[in-house]
Design goal:
six-stranded parallel beta sheet; alpha/beta; 205 residues; TIM Barrel; 8 helices; 8 strands; 14% strand; two-stranded parallel sheet
Length: 205
Amino acid sequence: MFIEQPPFFFRMLFPGACWRIDKSRKQVYLTFDDGPIPEVTPWVLDVLDSYQIKACFFCVGDNVKKYPDIYRMIIDRGHQVGNHTYSHLHGWMLSAEKYQRNVDEADTLIGSRLFRPPHGHLPMKCFFQLKATYKVIMWDVVTRDYSKRMTAKGVFNVVRRYTRPGSIIVFHDSMRSWSRLQTALPKSIEWLKAQGYSFGRIDDE
């Protein structure tokens, strides 16, 4: 549960970060990390289109540079984008200065006020610096679709067990998640809709 739904004490390490939105409404917020890549992202976009759902894609700057047409596809289809650093950093291993430079490099390609740190790790000094410029978006449910220990059914069960009103849910448009995502994403969307959830847009103002 510590991984799938971060506990209160972990959330308190990042005061002012957004973990969950509007608990009073039966609405969730789908997000996708680590893309864009041509093998997975277009498929995700097609699935979202088929259900008329908009999501937020937290993009790695290096992938945006490699695949600008895929990145443009996300925007052209009406989805949000966010900064996920340039090179998918492990933030606790770097100085705040190096981390900030990496975020800034991604910003030249992405230009979004939304930011999510890879792994939820970043230097605390940098977190407070970033808050002045970005809305830091964390998560309420991480599906663990990237884990080799998980099955597609296991990913779906995470969504079913931990989702609640206002949940920000993390999937990954990456090759590590691909074998599980193909089944788990449509099945999760169908279940959420059957439970009466709508799909919201993250405020980027």
